[in-house]
Amino acid sequence: GVADIESEDFGAAFEGHDHIYGVDLQGRPIVLSCFGTMDVEDVFGDADRFLRWRVQLMERAIKRLQPWKQGSPETLMQIHDYKDCVVIGKDKRISEAVKVFTACMSNNYPEMKGQTVFINFPWIFGALFAALAVFIPDKTKSKFVMLGPTDPSRGELLDFVPPHYLPQRYGGLLADDRAAAEAAAGELVAAERIVMGARSCETRTVDVPAGGLVRFVIRVLAHGVKVTYTANGETYDGSSGEPVGATEGAADAEGACMISAESGVVQREVAVAKGGTVVFTFDNSFSLFTVGKTVVFGAEAC
């Protein structure tokens, strides 16, 4: 039965491919599966074992739902990453395992699929879906999103997942390493995506009590944006966290530091002795034509 499957140990070959963590923008638990990291013989060679493993994953994910809370989501967000995955039709073991699993999901978990996003899949997979889409009911079709090859500079998955629950390889802030991500889960600063147009500026504020700290995280996915923050009339370099004037070569004449995709994830924790409102400024006014620059930003007083 399901109870036995939940406690079953499938061995090392089945570990590290799936991650259940956080929630999407609609509050649904996220299940990320990376099929390209799976050994074909060990994982797909026994269709029944493969099915039990996937059922175990579904049951663990379902336990993250909170049906007793009014208005709480009743479905899951699933992300399927097919990077480096063998094309399903080229290996009978994969085809058979997927066929058995699909039938089981349709018969036993039809209402659990809130949305499934497919990324990094072979082109033939996308072409096949496009050809069959005309025969799929709109309600069912709306549950599937085909993104193809992903590039962190585009951050397409940010349309569905908050930055602090999205791995860095997809444009988010979460560590790509599973152990590191789980260790940092309780320390993540909730973040948002800011999309900036040409010649635009954006500001965000955080109120900090006297003697408090402000923790913030910034990531620019493409090109560059000038970043500063001001506390009690003093301007700080958005990258180093040092007062402007104390840094050498990082800030320009206005005290703004350029943060780009190459800067990676910038995290700082800065003391604000007198407290007050900390103002973060993101400046893209120097860009005449580049639109849609994405800044991932989160800050909190602590």
Automatic annotation (TrEMBL):
Spans through the membrane: 117-136
GO molecular function terms listed in the Swiss-Prot or TrEMBL record: lipid binding
Superkingdom per UniProt: Eukaryota
Keywords: Membrane, Transmembrane, Transmembrane helix
Domain CRAL-TRIO residue range list: 20-178
One Pfam family it belongs to: CRAL_TRIO
InterPro entries noted in UniProt: CRAL-TRIO_dom, CRAL-TRIO_dom_sf, PATL
PANTHER family membership: CELLULAR RETINALDEHYDE-BINDING_TRIPLE FUNCTION DOMAIN-CONTAINING PROTEIN, PATELLIN-1
Protein name, per record: CRAL-TRIO domain-containing protein
Organism of provenance: Florenciella parvula
